[in-house]
Recover the amino acids of this structure.
């Protein structure tokens, strides 16, 4: 499955952005999907994931501010980011795959990745 992430940009602290990840038609609707991010000089970290049918998981750092959702009819997964902070600045990657629940927060559990979209939050 091919993934195309979009929606990144520059936003002030406290603002909002919605990221989208469009998948090529196929088996995406049967996959778990996740968002990860990587800040300069840091390792890629888990942000959020959604498993079928609609169970969601979040990193503690974004819980209550970010919402992951999916529209299988459009082969798209979204990440709505509210109350953004400068520490949310990173390249955000979407991922998909057949992932077991215990591995949803593990990047290597996903075998399909998008190209990344940059989110910059200014203070």
């Amino acid at each position: 499955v091919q993934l195309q992430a979009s929606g990144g940009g520059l936003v002030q602290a406290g603002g909002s952005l919605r990221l989208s990840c469009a998948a090529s038609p196929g088996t995406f609707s049967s996959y778990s999907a996740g968002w990860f991010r990587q800040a300069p000089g840091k390792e890629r970290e888990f942000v959020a994931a959604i498993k079928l049918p609609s169970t969601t998981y979040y990193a503690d750092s974004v819980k209550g501010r970010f919402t992951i959702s999916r529209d299988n009819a459009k082969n798209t997964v979204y990440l709505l980011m509210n109350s953004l902070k400068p520490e949310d600045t990173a390249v955000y990657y979407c991922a998909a795959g057949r992932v077991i629940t215990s591995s949803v927060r593990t990047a290597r559990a996903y075998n399909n990745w998008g190209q990344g979209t940059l989110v910059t939050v200014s203070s």
In short: The longest strand covers residues 90-97. The CA atoms of residues 86 and 121 lie 5 Å apart.
